[in-house]
Amino acid sequence: MPCWLCVEWECGNDTFICAACQKKKDVTYKKDCHKATHSLARLSHTVASSKQTVEETLGSLNSRLTEDLADVRSRMEKLEARVDQRITAVEQRLSKMEELLLQVLTAVSIPQSSS
Questions:
Q1: Which one has a higher pLDDT value, 90 or 22?
Q2: CB of 39 within 8 A of CB of 71?
Q3: 38 pLDDT more than 70
Q4: Cα-based distances in Å from 46 to 4, 49, 55, 77, 115
Q5: Are 34 and 15 in contact (CB under 8 A)?
Q6: Which of 64, 80, 97, 106 has its CA 20 to 30 A from that of 42?
Q7: Tell me, what's the pLDDT at 57?
Q8: Residue 49's pLDDT is what?
Q9: What is the dihedral of CA 49, 52, 53, 55, to 10 degrees?
Q10: Pseudo-torsion of CA 67, 69, 73, 78, nearest 10°?
Q11: C-alpha distances in angstroms, 100 versus 28, 92, 114?
């Protein structure tokens, strides 16, 4: 069952509040230091009852982040390729438009200004 952990420095790290008790407003604190105005952090069941060591948790997070980073890199490479294709297509179209414009200017015999 999810629970809440008081994150205020006065309470230390051992003031947990059951989510069901919090919902019913039936909370009694074992320390006099905790107040209803303190900030709470929600802990899920898997985190609160996990038997993993810190090293195992960090290893798991590291592998997940590595996979996510590889996915992001792959998606970025695909996006870069699409952008490059689009830029090339736009440059080709602009070049064709320039050629057509020159042909039109030549056909109507308008002198071109030299730059």
A1: 90
A2: no
A3: yes
A4: 13, 6, 16, 35, 72
A5: yes
A6: 64
A7: 80
A8: 47
A9: -130
A10: 60
A11: 83, 12, 18
